[in-house]
Design goal:
The chain is built from nine helices and seven strands, in the order αααβααβααββαββαβ. By secondary structure, it is of the alpha/beta class.
């Protein structure tokens, strides 16, 4: 309701083409999702419908993976506006993009966002991953729960691959007192090396979680 009121007072412009009225117009949305993402989310090699190849699944034991696309062109523009320019309204179209690429899920599945650093949330003013996950869960009429919490204060964005891998085991912990559901879908914004996903999956499994799936808005090849 509040978002619609703000839209009327101060209309948005499409993050990609500049059209007045929406954060992401239908034409640009189609350009992003018209060709389904193919290849393994981690190594980009050909794989089956799981979205992750047999080799990578040994280190990321999930049932299935979905991704909107590579972080480039229109998807990169709307993600960067949302994440780095604090354009909070971008959460809704990003959740809509996920809704387009993720198939029907079991009604008992729980949506779980990858935790954001508290310091980042304070600076940005909102939890960018949590907000996408919440809007996605609402669209699907699924429960969303914060099952994980950050242990490390490190920011992976500026770290090399080996440094990320060393930090992996210290990134997350299961929230105390929570009961792990039988089926979860992890939500993340940008997947690069898969370090955060491996860490999150490991914690969920050690705490008794199972049936783990994962959905990301974009894949960023590690440079």
């Amino acid at each position: 309701m509040i978002e619609r009121l703000l839209d009327a007072i101060s209309p948005h412009r499409c993050s990609v083409c500049g059209e007045t009225g929406v954060i992401l117009c239908e034409s640009c949305k189609y350009d992003i999702i018209h060709e389904a993402y193919s290849g393994c989310l981690l190594c980009h090699k050909p794989c089956g419908q799981r979205g992750i190849c047999v080799s990578c699944r040994r280190s990321l034991p999930v049932e299935q993976v979905w991704c909107v696309g590579d972080r480039q062109e229109g998807l990169k523009q709307i993600l960067d506006e949302y994440k780095f320019n604090n354009r909070r309204a971008g959460a809704r179209p990003l959740a809509e993009l996920l809704d387009e690429v993720v198939p029907l899920l079991p009604p008992e599945i729980v949506v779980v966002p990858i935790p954001t650093l508290p310091a980042t949330v304070r600076v940005r003013g909102f939890d960018h991953v949590g907000l996408i996950a919440r809007k996605f869960a609402k669209r699907r009429e699924l429960e969303m729960r914060q099952l994980l919490e950050r242990r490390s204060r490190a920011t992976l964005h500026f770290l090399g691959k080996s440094e990320r891998e060393k930090l992996g085991p210290t990134l997350f912990a299961a929230k105390s007192g929570v009961t792990m559901p039988a089926h979860v879908v992890l939500i993340d914004d940008i997947v690069t090396t898969g370090t955060t996903l491996r860490a999150a999956v490991r914690v969920l499994q050690e705490a008794g979680g199972g049936g783990i799936r994962m959905a990301g808005t974009a894949r960023q090849p590690f440079d």
